[in-house]
Amino acid sequence: MRVMAARFRSLTGARAALVKLRKRFGLREDEADAASMRNGAVLAGQFREEFIPDVTAIIREYNGRIVANFAKELTEPWSRRR
């Protein structure tokens, strides 16, 4: 599983990419979302490893730029301490 974030020029672009990602991969609302930022928008979500090439292509299709791409385990260090 990977956690990715992408920056978009507009919330419209981020939401369009989000709709396509949700339909294509059957994502729940808690697995990916988009939000407005001061100078654009961001889309963030968690995706299965094998989907990453297609996720990247969809983000780029809507003029998004990937700004983060991490293994999910790296985002939850507290889960390894138990």
Secondary-structure element string: EHEEHEH
Strand adjacency order, main sheet: 2-3-1-4
Tally of domains: 1
- Which percent range fits the helix content? 25-40%
Largest sheet: 4 strands, antiparallel
Mean pLDDT, to the nearest integer, reads 90
* CATH architecture heading: 2-Layer Sandwich
What shape does the CA trace take?
Answer: globular
Proportion of beta-strand residues:
25-35%
* Residue windows where pLDDT falls under 50 for at least 5 positions: none
**CATH classification, class level:** Alpha Beta
Tell me the structural class. Answer: alpha+beta
Q: How many β-strand runs? A: 4
Annotated CATH topology: Alpha-Beta Plaits
Structural summary, described in words:
The chain is 35% helix and 34% strand. It has 82 residues and is of the alpha+beta class. The chain has a single domain, classed as Alpha-Beta Plaits. A four-stranded antiparallel beta sheet has the order 2-3-1-4. Helix 1 packs antiparallel against helix 2. The mean pLDDT is 90.
